């Protein structure tokens, strides 16, 4: 029953992932339309700034999500440490925790820098775009970020359910 329930939940997650991927494709299309419009109205150096910002947005958000996910896994492993855990494993987990924490702080600095760059890009676009077009750009950035986060979250949940099903199947004679 438990395996059946987990498989049902996994199926639901796969369906949700397909919806998010579909939304991501639609968002990418809007991004291409926006890119063409920005290229038409902006100077080449301003367009380059816009393109660098959009490219870095995905990279920095993905990096933050990845590091946060890895850090959470290490923290979960650290919570399972008990008297039977050997010193070498404890030390390894502590070192990984410190390293991932530093890396996540660095990634947060990158995100703050990216936020400043977004304000610069918004300022540039405000000179050329109508209020509605500027709102469309801001909505695009928000949706792109949201979809990246949602996609990563679903991938993590799917991975957990797949591991749980695999472990349960192995434990049944």
Describe the structure using short key phrases:
173 residues; mainly alpha
What is this structure's SSE topology?
Layout: H1 2-41, H2 44-79, H3 87-128, H4 131-171
Helix pairs in contact: 1-4, 2-3, 2-4
Biggest sheet descriptor = none
Rounded Rg: 21 Å
- Morphology: flat
Determine the strand fraction and express it as a percent band: under 5%
Q: End-to-end span in angstroms?
A: 15 Å
- The low-confidence runs, each spanning 5 or more residues with pLDDT under 50, are none
Integer average pLDDT:
94
Which sequence of SSEs, written as H and E, runs from N to C? HHHH
Tally of strands:
0
Q: Class by helix and strand content?
A: mainly alpha
What share of the residues lie within helices?
over 70%
Number of continuous helical runs = 4
Coiled coil: 90-120, 144-171
GO biological process, one term: actin filament organization
InterPro entries: ASD2_dom, Shroom_fam
Family: Belongs to the shroom family.
Please give a structural write-up.
Belongs to the shroom family. It holds the Pfam family ASD2. InterPro entries: ASD2_dom (IPR014799), Shroom_fam (IPR027685). The structure is a single chain. Helices cover 92% and strands 0% of the residues. The protein is mainly alpha-helical. Helix 1 (2-41) packs antiparallel against helix 4 (131-171), helix 2 packs antiparallel against helix 3 (87-128) and helix 2 packs parallel to helix 4. The radius of gyration is 21 Å and the shape is flat.
């Amino acid at each position: 029953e438990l395996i059946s329930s987990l498989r049902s939940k996994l199926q639901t997650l796969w369906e949700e992932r397909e919806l998010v991927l579909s939304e991501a494709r639609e968002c990418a299309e809007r991004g291409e339309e926006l890119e063409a419009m920005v290229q038409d109205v902006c100077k080449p150096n301003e367009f380059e700034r816009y393109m660098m910002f959009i490219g870095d947005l995905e990279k920095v958000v993905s990096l933050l999500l990845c590091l946060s996910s890895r850090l959470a896994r290490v923290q979960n492993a650290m919570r399972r440490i008990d008297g039977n855990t050997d010193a070498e494993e404890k030390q390894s987990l502590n070192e990984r925790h410190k390293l991932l924490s530093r890396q996540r702080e660095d990634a947060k600095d990158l995100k703050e820098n990216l936020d400043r760059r977004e304000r610069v890009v918004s300022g540039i676009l405000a000179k050329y775009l109508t209020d509605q077009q500027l709102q469309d750009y801001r909505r695009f950035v928000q949706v792109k970020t949201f979809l990246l986060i949602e996609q990563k979250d679903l991938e993590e949940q799917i991975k957990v359910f797949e591991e749980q099903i695999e472990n349960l199947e192995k434990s049944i004679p």
